[in-house]
Amino acid sequence: MLFVKELVESAGRLTRVPSKYVFETTKSDDCMVVDPVSEPETIKIPIIDYSLMTSGNPDQRSQVINELRNACLEWGFFMVINHGVGETLRDELMRATESFFDLSMEEKLKYTGKKLFDPIKCGTSFNPNVEKSLLWRDYLKLLVHPHFNAPHKPSHFSKILQEYSKKTREMASELLKGISESLGLDENYINEKMGVESEKWTQVLVANMYPPCPQPELSIGLPPHSDHGLLTILMQNDPSILGLQVLHNAKWVPIHPLPNSFLVNTGDHMEILTNGKYKSVVHRAVVNNKTTRISIGTAHGPPLDKIVSPAPELLANGVGTQLSLPAYRGIKYRDFLELQQSKSLNGKSCLDCLRL
């Protein structure tokens, strides 16, 4: 296995993309990318003030819940500000993550797990065994809850990862309370159904490294896809580096994060649970030829053996006497992950398999 980072560094000044990294575009890749100058109205990303949702007065919380509802209905994506996760912790995690990717090939190859549910996996691309083209991406993937796992090196990495994982879990739990309330349900509905209250839910942390690419128009970091789980919480090393793009109203919207904000998107299991009311968002990661972009995402989902189906409470009509038909069949979270990880990333292809 050759990591992209090592490919770039071993080649001195790499001037061309090797043919195996030339990405074949899909229909969604051909969608127009929004120009922030000519279409500024298109890039009004929803912003959620976390502090007002958790510590504000009832009127402020009600307003934020309404904003959260609109964000989930219209975007499936939003930024979270005033979240209480210290900037020092975020910076320490990013530096430690860079240090991990700077380890020797020999050290990183110790973590190239062969099985899907290996608790620590380091690799490149997404699924090289089935992909026609390799992705311009190296990654570290960790199962951090309900059982915490971390590499031994760098020495301080584990402690930082554990604290950060706990903070983002707490944030996800509070956001899920707000989302439950926005659906007209009890605020603890999703947390109780998805094992959050019992601390049995699943949290996966994925660190992505996208090194500079000599021909960024030919390669891609991650192709258009939706995430598994309920919510993904993401941060990146430098908010000025454009890389994440969200598909909104058939256009690719480049995301420019606010300093010290988190980016949050709804996942496939949120779409299943809400019977399609809150849809998972398709997004992609593009690369550039100037600098390395690192993103760290935590995906939050139910316990691996939990079957997720549309919530019965959301199938009732306004009177509450008749049930509308479920739009998705139930599936174990474990089985969904196996389905997703056995293929190459391609939009909502896995979710499409569950539609009724």
TrEMBL record:
Oxidoreductase among keywords: yes
InterPro entries per UniProt: DIOX_N (IPR026992), IPNS-like_FE2OG_OXY (IPR044861), IPNS-like_sf (IPR027443), Oxoglu/Fe-dep_dioxygenase_dom (IPR005123), Plant_2OG-oxidoreductases (IPR050295)
Principal subcellular localization: cytoplasm
Keywords (A to Z) from UniProt: Cytoplasm, Dioxygenase, Iron, Metal-binding, Nucleus, Oxidoreductase
Alphabetized Pfam families for the sequence: 2OG-FeII_Oxy, DIOX_N
GO cellular component: cytoplasm; nucleus
Subcellular location per the Swiss-Prot or TrEMBL entry: Cytoplasm; Nucleus
Residue ranges of domain Fe2OG dioxygenase in the record: 200-302
SUPFAM superfamilies registered for this protein in UniProt: Clavaminate synthase-like (SSF51197)
MF (Gene Ontology): dioxygenase activity; metal ion binding
Cited function: Involved in the regulation of shoot development and salicylic acid (SA) homeostasis.
Family stated for the protein in its record: Belongs to the iron/ascorbate-dependent oxidoreductase family.
Protein's name in the database: Oxoglutarate/iron-dependent dioxygenase
Organism for this UniProt entry: Corchorus capsularis (Jute)
Lineage: Eukaryota, Viridiplantae, Streptophyta, Embryophyta, Tracheophyta
